[in-house]
Amino acid sequence: MPAITLTGVAKSYGGGEHAVRNLDLTVPDGAFMCLLGPSGCGKTTTLRMIAGLEQPTAGTIAVGDRVLDSVERGLYVPPEKRGMGLVFQNYALWPHLSVRDNVEFGLRMRKVPAVERRARAEAALKMVHVDAAMDRYPSQLSGGQQQRVALARMLAVNPSVLLLDEPLSNLDARLRLEMRAELKRIHEESGATIVFVTHDQLEALTMATDVAVMNEGELQQVAAPMDMYDRPANRFVAEFVGSPPMAIVDVGPSPAGLAGSLLRFAESRVPGSLEGAQCSPTAVGIRPEALRLGPPPGATWCEEAVVEAVLPAGSSWTVRLRVLDTELYAVSYTPVEAAPGDVVTCWTERMHLFGADGARLSAWDGAASPAKGAVA
């Protein structure tokens, strides 16, 4: 299927408030695109506009050369003619129909012959590993199984695009993990284009081929998951993507304390790189995973820190530190021997600098140093 393209798309519900504003977004053919952002950022509205359940108040939505919505031309293609499947946050299964009949429902509406309908339903159920329960009713299934049946119902009609609106939010942690793996497998096997809405950044990072972060109706960044994690476009993306979130230290007119220490290190890596208004950082960010404890290896930023708390999480330890009167968090994947009140050395080879407009100016790490004013 050709790419889905949104150009200048906006959605307003009146009163001057925009749920989505001036959205330019391309979903490549065969991509697993996650729309990620906090509640109220416009991601579900965007999904519903792609599906045809909402009409934009401005802009164009197209699939390849086929225009589905155009406010300027007064063009609108109804949902049933878009060739897309939509899975809602709730399962929306018919309680009086068996699993098989639920999956066949869409095919029945399309008047698919009975033999073909049965074969396609059974194939879809087998793909999501619920074929053993096809004669049961929804009330006899677990939440995870019901979610798989809802997916199978969409897969059975062979949609060119599968739209998922936070389908895992009602599941417990174990089922969510299982369904993430299932969705990734289904995407690889079916080759369908998937647009997935979530507020859970872990879901986006683990499943998607592309992530689009939104905030207050505006697109903040589109990138591959690890590119977004390593090179966030601005402060919002840096703080939203990652758990625990990136620590952001604001820089005042006369940087002192932790901010001054970090900036002196950044300047020492590339002398003169912080000169000029366009390169003047107003904040410095450090990811907890990049903050290490112990003797620093070579030329890295380091300072003494007081341990305030050690929080074990099974496979990792989160440590709250007080560094030059500023609170920072470090994540260690080896046991932490320090106790609250101990003084330790913390160090990092990587930090992110942000300008007055919130955009990331650069990143310094031990492997390479960016050119003057460059965005790494």
TrEMBL record:
Domain of life, per lineage: Bacteria
InterPro entries: AAA+_ATPase, ABC_transporter-like_ATP-bd, ABC_transporter-like_CS, ABC_transpr_MalK/UgpC-like, Mo/tungstate-bd_C_term_dom, P-loop_NTPase, Transp-assoc_OB_typ2
Cellular component per GO, a single term: ATP-binding cassette (ABC) transporter complex, substrate-binding subunit-containing
Pfam families reported in the protein's UniProt record: ABC_tran (PF00005), TOBE_2 (PF08402)
Keyword NADP: no
Domain ABC transporter: 4-241
Keyword match Transport: yes
SUPFAM superfamilies on file: MOP-like, P-loop containing nucleoside triphosphate hydrolases
Molecular function, one GO term: ATP binding
Keywords: ATP-binding, Nucleotide-binding, Transport
Protein's name in the database: ATP-binding cassette domain-containing protein
